[in-house]
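Reviewer 2 asked us to include a model.

Predict the structure of this chain.
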Amino acid sequence: MTSTSSTTSAIIEEAAATSLLRFATAGSVDDGKSTLVGRLLHDSKSVLADQLEAVEHASRSRGQEAPDLALLTDGLRAEREQGITIDVAYRYFATPRRRFILADTPGHVQYTRNMVTGASTAELAVVLVDARNGVVEQTRRHAAVAALLRVPHVVLAVNKMDLVDYAEPVFAAIAEEFTQYAASLGVPDITAIPISALAGDNVVTASANMDWYGGPTVLEHLETVPVGTDASQEPARFPVQYVIRPQTAEHPDYRGYAGQIASGVLRTGDEVTVLPSGLTSTIEGIDALGDSVDVAWAPQSVTVRLADDLDISRGDIIVPTASAPATTQDIEATVCHLHDRPLKPGARVLLKHTTRTVKAIVKEIPSRLTLDDLSQHPAPGELAANDIGRVVVRTAEPLALDAYADSRRTGSFLLIDPADGTTLTAGMVGTAFGASATADEAAADDEGWDF
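Predicted model (structure tokens):
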């Protein structure tokens, strides 16, 4: 068994040689997030000539001698007029060592939901701090959101070091304060880097102005930080997206279940359980890219064939029998409300979890989180846009969920407006920051949504 596991790990490691890192930037207004992103793209030669020419032209028209690299990401007219970031800007670039998907998120308090969106799939968050101002309230908010979303790596980029004469004591004091705070939230890995995004110090190339710093540049750290987790050590989760039944002369009896492996490893011969039905079978074969394989792992898209003909459809999840999660209709979760319309107890919603969408009702909102000091405001009555709080949801059908701390993919869900399909709320199963236990269930509703 150990030999098989070692072989699987080696195969996965080899396949991930040219890895992909998803990361997000965050920080207070005017800390220089967009300038950092622009500098990163420019100095890594990831900007097309016409893009750079357009930025240079826009900068000259605004009376600036040097190109304003922040314009590479601040693409909306309102962003350029105000000199701020409003929407999440995604950028794709690559170096010989790694591919990147970058989410440049806004710094304003009213755009907390945008940071949640950008950081929800990130494996690393770059939190910027102005060296002149140090750690401020918004810095702590962004660290808290990164911890809530279980972002495994956080980089503290102490920017504008050129404006404090590249003083090491200034950097050291900020790094110590932030590291202690982030560590208290449970952030597992924190790296502090002194930079000047405007001048390019320690962004892509090492700074000659800070010879007292011996660590990596921002790009060096992004290229070398460990990506992902060991899939062979995670419980396998395979949400079914589509049932393939060709029923042709060539494949008269073929029945396959297609989808993307959310976590873990699947092998032929594994005993599996289909949830929520609880039916069991054995993996007879795995098809990937037109070929049969003996092993597949997250996040590969494959087709699984079982030894038995079972009633399986989209939304079911195939899991190893030995590590099957419990199914439940009662979900307690930490959520970030995304919509301008408040979320209130009694709201009828659709809950989307992996490939399954079911009717649900918000039974209770026990508390709202105050990100400034991480205190819980009990019984807020509703969650407004950008609010983070605790909810209790009852679903019409049982779901197989993991805790978000164990799996960001199968531990997350969305609440959707059943009338128009609008996304209302993003949820993370389980507790966060020692959230208080929920109160007694709210009264049942009697219009077809009381489960």
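Confidence is low (pLDDT under 50) at residues 76-86, 433-451. Helices lie at 2-15, 33-43, 49-61, 77-82, 112-119, 137-148, 168-184, 218-224. We have added this to the supplementary material.
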